């Protein structure tokens, strides 16, 4: 289990994240969604033990990442957004070097390395130099090194970014496999639709603060909302409200009225026309995931419901 407890990170006067708290339970994939610069990598890097928080703590299966870093980080795998492996050494040799930190002998590390390279899709490129690996290959290599200690928790930071379809499918299936094995997985993305079919719940972060946590069920229920948006030439009056209310619940703002149900557009248009109203625009709207995302983080996109 990954238990993030009120972590804050300041860079001088710049607050990167503030009071970030949430949990990833065993057997659960949590989507961590926010715009660029929202604070996802900062949260993940602190949870991986590669960045110290200004305050707060993260418990990995009960081990504190600040006070018991070795045990905590042994229990969490981490695939960074942009793995930096610029070493002019063969990948397998570097793997063996890292395995040494876990107290694994050279012969055992070579054997384990070959197995893990195969598991992560790097079979056949073990002897290629790390600085000649592509970004996708570096991500797979980071995964292979993470797997040395067989952790029960994983941090995937924008892992699908820049991958080809095969790479995307590999990491998605891997996350699902880990889930079925009872592992806790945190999966960050700046695109809600990217994690939608994968995660159990989504934690939304904006400007360094957690703004909402929603289960996928709550999100799906939200998504099914459909409606009709009517833009009139003049402001909505009582008569328009009366007409539109016959078709469903309404929201009104200025010259815009939204009917929150799946109504027949022509019928509404006809009634308004018969009553002498001029409609400048009318159209069905559908609350989709990206609209929800923008609504949650407090920005309006053109389609957002009023
Ligand atoms: N080393 C640093 N020094 C100063 N500010 C930093 C540093 N690293 C991150 N920040 C700031 O912290 C905030 C959060 O950045 P972070 O990288 O965590 O966001 P993110 O959600 O991962 O973004 P992205 O999707 O672009 O990777 C940003 O305002 C960023 O500019």
UniProtKB/TrEMBL annotation:
Any GO MF annotation of the entry: ATP hydrolysis activity
Keyword Nucleotide-binding annotated: yes
Pfam families with a match to the protein in the record: ABC_tran
Domain ABC transporter: residue ranges: 2-232
Keywords annotated in UniProt: ATP-binding, Nucleotide-binding, Transport
PROSITE patterns referenced in this protein's UniProt entry, alphabetically: ABC_TRANSPORTER_1 (PS00211), ABC_TRANSPORTER_2 (PS50893)
CDD domains, per database record: ABC_DR_subfamily_A
Lineage top rank: taxon: Archaea
Entry's family note: Belongs to the ABC transporter superfamily.
Name of the protein in question: ABC transporter ATP-binding protein
Source organism (scientific name): Acidianus manzaensis
Classification lineage: Archaea, Thermoproteota, Thermoprotei, Sulfolobales, Sulfolobaceae
């Amino acid at each position: 289990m990954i238990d993030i407890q009120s972590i804050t990170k300041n860079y001088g006067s710049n607050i990167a994240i503030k009071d970030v708290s949430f949990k990833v339970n065993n057997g659960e994939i949590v989507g961590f969604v926010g715009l660029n610069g929202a604070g996802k990598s900062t949260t993940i890097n602190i949870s991986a033990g590669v960045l110290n928080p200004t305050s707060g703590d993260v418990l990995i299966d009960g081990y504190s990442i600040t006070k018991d870093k070795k045990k905590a980080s042994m229990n969490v795998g981490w695939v960074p957004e942009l793995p930096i492996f610029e070493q002019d050494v063969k990948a397998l040799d570097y793997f063996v070097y890292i395995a040494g930190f876990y107290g694994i002998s050279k012969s055992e590390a070579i054997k384990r390395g070959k197995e893990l390279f195969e598991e992560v899709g790097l079979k056949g490129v073990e002897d290629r130099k790390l600085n000649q690996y592509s970004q996708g290959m570096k991500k797979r290599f980071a995964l292979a090194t993470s797997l040395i200690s067989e952790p029960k928790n994983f941090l995937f930071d924008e892992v699908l970014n820049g991958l080809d379809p095969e790479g995307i499918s590999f990491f998605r299936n891997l996350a699902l496999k880990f889930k079925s094995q009872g592992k806790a997985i945190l999966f960050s993305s700046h695109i809600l639709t990217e994690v939608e079919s994968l995660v159990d719940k989504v934690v939304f972060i904006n400007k360094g603060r957690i703004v909402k946590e929603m289960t996928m069920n709550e999100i799906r229920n939200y998504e099914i909302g459909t409606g009709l948006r009517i833009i009139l030439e003049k402001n909505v009056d009582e008569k328009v409200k009366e007409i539109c209310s016959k078709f469903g619940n309404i929201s009104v703002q200025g010259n815009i009225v939204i009917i929150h149900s799946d109504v027949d557009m022509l019928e509404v248009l006809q009634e308004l026309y018969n009553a002498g109203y001029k409609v400048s625009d009318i159209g069905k709207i559908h609350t989709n995931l990206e609209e929800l995302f923008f609504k949650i983080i407090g920005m309006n996109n053109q389609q957002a419901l009023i």
